[in-house]
Amino acid sequence: MEEPELNQPRWYAEVTAYQWLVLAIASAGWIFDVFEGQVFNITRGEMLKELLESSDTSGGVKFWGDIFLAVFLIGGTLGGVLFGSLADRFGRKPTMAVTILCYSIFSGLTYFATELWHVAALRFLVAMGVGGEWAVAAALVAEVFPARARAHAAGIFHASSVLGTWIATLAGLWVGAQWRYAYLVGVVPALLVLWVRSSVEEPESWRQAEREQRRMGSFGELFGDRRWARSAILGMILAAVGLGTFWGVTVAGQNLAEEMLLREAAGEAAQIANAADEGISNSPERFEPSVEAKKEAGEKAKFAYGIVETAGGGLGLLAFGPLAARLGRKPTFALMQLGALAIVPITCYVPQTYTQMLCLLPVFGFFTLGMHAGYAIYFPELFPGHLRATGTGVCFNGGRLLAASMLWISAEVKALPGMDLRLAVCLLSSLFLVGLAVICFLPETKGRPLPE
Questions:
Q1: Is 210 inside a domain boundary?
Q2: pLDDT value of position 276
Q3: Are 366 and 314 in contact (CB under 8 A)?
Q4: pTM of the model
Q5: Fewest Cβ atoms nearer than 10 Å: which of 64, 151, 191, 348?
Q6: Structure confidence at residue 70 (pLDDT)
């Protein structure tokens, strides 16, 4: 029987200096993983206008932006699956170093892109490194930390992604139209390779599996054994829910904030017109915001999403670990998804001003993003040591591939004639119901040792 919670030491009491070092290295890699993904979202308008030699911000820019996002998701899927298997076969340490070099070098080369195919190829290669690094780092953190600290440490690891979004947002705002310089920041994580090579040791569980000559990183065993295949397939669907709603719902916080600002600008223009026309009624819908008002709304919306909403999302990511340690993995997934189903329509329809929107966006981010930390906690606990990085990579990055369709679905729903953005976001949030159904068929891993 377990001791009462009050009589147990703090979760971090048994954590060693080396284990903290591993968490710091894994988190640093993940921070720049997220930076590489988010910096494109922040700078793609300026990038594509320059490459397309067009001032159009809705036609070709939007089309190619969605294409490159799909390319990134596909690259992340292949990289996560490939490097996850390589990490099981050859070790966590060398594979992590290769993935970091992969995304940092190709991000830096984006500075020199002059054609659309340059961007497509580089985004694909960056994504391969990004997808691979997460799978390796998540497995490494799970294997290195003691059982009582595992959920907390993995939650902190994934929550560090917020810093990546903040860095990308600040870099995008800082460089403005000079988008190329933001990608040079992506070269910095190459220095992490020296830290990885000098500090990280292979986990004992991996060494033991290698000594026993297990089938390291075997896709045949992963999908040939019913236990692991079931976990891999259901894990992919669970990840697809979070990643799909991220692109369809979470990032829409920026669009919701921008629409609110444009409505406010139109309302102010209507008030001015009413005063000039001595009381003649003018509806805000009649007024098109000025170019300056649109530009200001776009910059404020970036801040609302990249800083304010992401701060709430970071708290949600940090909260997942302690909640999972206390309540269990499955109940915490359910709590986050139920909270998301409730907060999305509230955020879409309740606020009447930009300030009110800013007050709700952190809660919106908390629930719609918080469940992502569960992937780093839960997926490594589903697979044995010789398949851990492979299975983790398949779950998370296979979910990326399934979620790629969400980009198309989201665009189609939002483009329907007469479709209001707020209604579209609410409809897309119904995907959380799929997540609630999937977790019913997955095992609870709280309090259980890692399978070996």
A1: no
A2: 56
A3: no
A4: 0.84
A5: 191
A6: 80
The percentage of residues in the chain with a pLDDT greater than 70, rounded to a whole number, is 91
Residue 452 resides in a domain: no
Residue-wise over 158-182: b if at least 16 C-beta within 10 A, else e?
A: bbbbbbbbbbbbbbbeebeeebbeb
Question: Quick check: is 339 in a domain?
Answer: yes
Q: What is the CATH number of the domain that holds 365?
A: 1.20.1250.20
Q: Which residues contact 200 (CB under 8 A, 6 or more apart)?
A: 22, 25, 92, 93, 96, 140
Tell me the C-alpha distance between 98 and 384, whole Å. 23
pLDDT score for 24: 93
Instruction: Domain of residue 272: give its range.
Output: 16-197+217-439
Q: What's the CA angle centered on 196, arms 194 and 198, to 5 degrees?
A: 70
Length of the chain: 452
What distance in Å separates the CA atoms of residue 70 and residue 411, rounded to the nearest whole number?
Answer: 12
Joined tokens for residue 184: 């040079």
Question: Looking at beta carbons, which pairs linking 27-30 to residues 24 or more positions away fall under 8 Å?
Answer: 27/156, 27/157, 27/160, 28/160, 28/189, 28/192, 28/195, 29/96, 29/99, 29/100, 29/133, 29/137, 29/189, 29/192, 29/196, 30/133, 30/134, 30/137, 30/157, 30/158, 30/160, 30/161, 30/164
d(CA 423, CA 415) in angstroms, rounded, equals 12
pLDDT band for 1, please (50, 70, 90 cuts).
Answer: very low
CB atoms within 10 A of CB 114: 9
> Is there a domain that residue 247 lies in?
yes
Domain count, the chain: 1
Q: What pLDDT, on a 0 to 100 scale, did the predictor assign at position 2?
A: 43
User: Average pLDDT of 215-226?
Assistant: 87
The DSSP symbol for 146 reads: -
In DSSP notation, 223-279 reads HHSHHHHHHHHHHHHHHHHHHHHIIIIITHHHHHHHHHHHHHHHHHHHHHHHHHTTT
Place of tokens 């569960």: 374
pLDDT band at 289 (very low <50, low <70, confident <90, very high): low
SS (H, E, C) 23-68: HHHHHHHHHHHHHHHHHHHHHHHHHHHHHHCCCCCCCHHHHHHHHH
Q: Distance between CA atoms of 74 and 70, rounded to whole angstroms?
A: 6
pLDDT-based confidence at residue 210 (cuts at 50, 70, 90): confident
